[in-house]
Amino acid sequence: MKNKYNSKAVFLGIIILCVAFFYFPPGNVEKNAVNETSFALQVIEQDNFWIYEVYNDDNLFIRQEYIPAVKGQQGFTSKADAEKIGNLVMRKLIENKMPVVSIKDLDANAIHFKRI
Description:
This protein has helices spanning 2-23, 29-35, 79-94, 103-108; strands at residues 39-46, 49-56, 59-64.
């Protein structure tokens, strides 16, 4: 009779551990998911301006030749500016958000552009 209860207790313990493992995964699983993203950023100089391209599984996903959210067709004047906004867009894509860039985002990243 005791043997029956012991095997039930062991079985119940295993079930609890399995459920806990799936509901509470280790903390670094989320970090690995971000590092193993299928998105990649490439910053390229074109006609004295900088553009960024976001690739998804080696396929061109976004090609941004002009600074988003500003009036007119203003290009990025520095590689650093294009890279900052490209990384912002990639972060939004990784988080399953729309990759929309606002003037507020540009100001927060100290992006240089002409206010028309």
